[in-house]
């Protein structure tokens, strides 16, 4: 996008989280308050969930920016179906502990490093686990055991779990009752309301030098909310394209029509990407099997017995081949 057209000194709707552009919506302000309360307890777990793009990472960036200047050691782990031993290895790397050896060596190294951090620097140590909904139950249990390690009367580690809504369902499992008892604060990050979407768009643009040019139609902002569902990342994606279209036309007003056309183009673009995506493994075989089934039925209904026998034998051979791949 040509920033000079509208006088912005940066792009207002970057997809990557930027704490400088943090917008304190009602949901985000409450989520942050829950984070601060939970972390003030200095033990156990704090849980924040939300849809993809709801702003969880931006929230954590703000937290890290604030806490890193207050003597806290903040370690972050991104997880995707990580088994217990590999999760411990990631935790070790995040805290600068030795990452070699088996589970016992990893645990010893992590605990020794955490104890040194408390003894030598007096630091509070916080582990942030992102995409926690992907963790197996055994890995969540490993985190619970780590959170139980103490030095005197104080826990060595506090754990912050970030995840999509599925994480709440996982934590509700009966076999995770002990972990649930260690959750001191939990919050689900909801989407922005229509009014907050208006404020969010204006806030982001003002933060990078917007002074009212281009003008924004109220109806246009209503449509931004309608098409994005109030999810910040979707708002950013749509508004980036709207500004690009406006800049190309040197539009002085971003209209509802422009938003509507741009949203439709985005939908078509994504539809084209999905249409070009390869079929899931086995989908072609499933289609072939259905076609063969239909052909077998036709032969059994309408071909003379001697001819039918030969054709059916061929088809059953194809069935066997496909069945072996399914």
From TrEMBL:
GO molecular function, a single term: ATP hydrolysis activity
Gene3D superfamilies found in the cross-reference section: P-loop containing nucleotide triphosphate hydrolases
Residue intervals of the AAA+ ATPase domain: 42-206
InterPro entries per the UniProt record, alphabetical: AAA+_ATPase, AAA_22, ExeA_AAA_ATPase_DNA-bind, P-loop_NTPase
Annotated protein name in UniProt: ATPase
Source species: Reyranella soli
């Amino acid at each position: 996008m040509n920033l000079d057209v509208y006088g912005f000194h940066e792009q207002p709707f970057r997809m990557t989280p930027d704490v400088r552009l943090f917008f304190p919506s009602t949901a985000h302000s409450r989520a942050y308050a829950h984070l601060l309360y939970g972390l003030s307890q200095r033990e156990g777990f704090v849980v924040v969930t939300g849809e993809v793009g709801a702003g969880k990472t931006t929230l954590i960036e703000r937290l890290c920016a604030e806490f890193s200047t207050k003597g806290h050691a903040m370690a972050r782990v991104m997880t995707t179906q990580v088994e217990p031993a590999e999760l411990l290895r990631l935790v070790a790397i995040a805290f600068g502990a030795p990452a070699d050896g088996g589970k016992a060596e990893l645990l010893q190294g992590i605990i020794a490093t955490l104890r040194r951090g408390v003894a030598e620097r007096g630091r509070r140590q916080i582990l942030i686990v992102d995409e926690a909904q992907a963790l197996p139950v055994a890995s969540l249990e490993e985190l619970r055991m780590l959170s139980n390690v103490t030095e005197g009367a104080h826990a060595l580690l506090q754990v912050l779990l970030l995840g999509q809504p599925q994480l709440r369902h996982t934590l509700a499992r009966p076999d995770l009752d002990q972990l649930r008892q260690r959750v001191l604060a939990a919050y689900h990050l909801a989407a922005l309301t229509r009014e907050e979407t208006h404020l969010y768009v204006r806030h982001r643009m003002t933060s990078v030098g917007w002074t009212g040019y281009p003008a924004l139609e109220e109806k246009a902002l209503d449509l931004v909310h309608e098409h994005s569902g109030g999810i910040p990342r979707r708002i950013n994606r749509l508004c980036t394209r709207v500004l690009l279209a406006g800049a190309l036309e040197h539009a002085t007003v971003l209209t509802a029509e422009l938003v509507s056309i741009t949203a439709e183009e985005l939908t078509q673009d994504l539809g084209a990407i999905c249409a070009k995506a390869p079929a899931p493994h086995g989908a072609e075989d499933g289609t072939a099997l259905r076609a063969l089934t239909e052909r077998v039925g036709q032969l059994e209904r309408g071909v003379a017995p001697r001819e039918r026998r030969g054709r059916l034998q061929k088809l059953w051979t194809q069935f066997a081949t496909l069945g072996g791949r399914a």
